[in-house]
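Form P-L/3: holo structure prediction, ligand NAI.
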Amino acid sequence: MLTKTQEQIFFVIDFDSTFTKVEGLDELAAIALAGNKDKDKIVSEIKSITDRGMLGEIGFAESLKARVNLLPANREHVDILVDFLMGKISDSFQRNRDFITQNQENILIVSSGFKDFIVPVAVSMGVKEENVYANTFRYDAEGNITGYDESNLLSQDKGKVKLLQQLNLDGDVFAIGDGYTDYELRESGLANKFFAFTENVERQKVVEKADEVVASLDEFLYINGLSRSQSYPKSKIKVLLLENVHPKAVASFKSEGFQVELLKGALDEEELIEKIKGVSILGLRSKTNLTKKVLEHPNASRLMAVGAFCIGTNQINLDECERRGIAVFNAPYSNTRSVVEMAIGEMIILTRDIMTKSNKMHEGIWDKSAKNSYEIRGKKLGLVGYGSIGTQISVIAEAMGMEVYFYDAVDKLALGNAKKCKSLEELFGVADFISLHVDGRKSNANMIGEKEFAMMKDNVIFINLSRGHVVEIPALVKALKSGKVWGAAIDVFPYEPKTNDEEFVNELRGLPRVILTPHVGGSTEEAQANIGEFVPSKLLQFMNNGSTYGSVNFPELQLPALEGAHRLLHIHQNVPGILAKINGIFAKHNVNIKGQYLKTTNEIGYVITDVAKEYSDEIVEELKGIDNTIKFRLLY
Ligand SMILES: NC(=O)C1=CN([C@@H]2O[C@H](COP(=O)(O)OP(=O)(O)OC[C@H]3O[C@@H](n4cnc5c(N)ncnc54)[C@H](O)[C@@H]3O)[C@@H](O)[C@H]2O)C=CC1
Ligand SMILES: O=C(O)CCC(=O)C(=O)O
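OUTPUT (holo model):
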């Protein structure tokens, strides 16, 4: 934590949409009107009046009266609202609870909302009750809200200005809020600075007037050199997520305060070079290629970590990432089961010739016959690639009565009664079904071509859910047309459309007994939700504490958090003597090391150091200046 004395600064903070994520009165209306047939109409009317007031389009007093008149609420509704608001405190305020409690004398909540719901929420975060300035409801004997105290300055036009005049604060005043009335404090000269707070809403008219725009309380504290929980505010760190990754991923990054952009489709090289500018964390799936050209472009200079929201990482130049100190993570098991189920299902569909029968039915043809329809039980399944997916298929296929054979480039232990083959030729010579589950390494390009199809048994059923470049499509088309291959299920293609709007062009289109799917082996709700949690958790661990556990291109390091320590990360080219130089700098500055891990690959070294004392800018500059340094980061 960084600190600076701030006795002479008063922090005047708005409540609705700043301290909390929502507008209290709008939410109170929604609660009070639950079950009312006109709820949506009245709530949207109240919201629109709130917005017009916030933008300064109508006077505040007028806006407040109109809203309260529309509100059929009572004390019970207010209690429900308080519970609701407790869960809606802005993320960055929650992260900086310590700042609030440590500065409670100087923190004032000044709001045109109502103390009835503001006080319990603000006090729960360390604000002093007497420092909450807001309106108060009037209730009748039954507890129904009948109006509010109209003598309260905050219920009047320019109420915040009038209140601050009356308070006559002795010191600098920083006003923080999302609305025009917060800016009016600056306009009137009562606040030295106005910070437009955009974590929850961004109003152009307010932002234009601000001295500074802050996307979070972290950013406000950072700009002003104040004590805070994030040494560098995450709202200044850009996360770019491509290919429509699961909303859980977006939520994970947003809840930690990162600036997140989500794009539906993949990007080509030039588009990625454009979009990667200023991005620190990139998330992609199988269709965006992260090439050397992209990585060496100056636009990619801030990139720290990449998440492959899938299993395969062949689309990422892992070596170049490593050389540049960019850690890459993937989800090695999150969609395994989905691919397995699809492969098994497709074997059954093809061997029962269900596609042909279903197509005929759609044309009105009732062709009840057993011709060309077989069970998978007792048949021989040949798996090429016996990794996570291959082995899981092996177990399930055996349970369904199949005889399993496999071939893998490395020596793998056979599960159950599966039989290991010494070569592809041996496997192809025996299998009735061939299913590919190799990874997408470059050397696997075109591993199945004319020669390999010729080795297979006649009428084989062929499945490829691995990578498109593994199979030569013209050779497959020929094998299908000649009858060598009876049926096929293909999910991956040498070229795949970038978005759902692009036409799929491929010679396999229109061939009978060929199941074509748009690379959806891993696309189930379950798998995508798993991946949407797993990959961000890895990326966040790397960003927050430097852990590279599970990285596919980085030395794997994990140092448990040490009480009271400051953590520094150093990534360097793997040449002798770097650790000595790092520790020499700590020794020179009399900084005690509490914990330290170093691990290297052929290319790079990665050191996590926890030190006991406050570090100075000088130490940081010296550490960055060590020859062969690739990246340096202070975490906390
Ligand atoms: N269609 C889809 O949506 C999905 C496709 N995949 C693809 O499936 C692949 C396999 O996934 P996992 O089983 O999890 O990977 P894995 O890494 O656990 O297994 C791959 C296996 O293939 C073997 N292998 C590689 N090249 C070989 C070769 N030339 N000959 C024989 N064996 C070879 C490896 O030794 C390894 O055992 C992924 O790399 C990915 O490309 C994965 C998930 C979804
Ligand atoms: O879902 C995706 O985009 C890719 C799935 C895949 O091929 C993988 O996980 O390797």
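COMMENT: The first strand starts at residue 9 and ends at 13.
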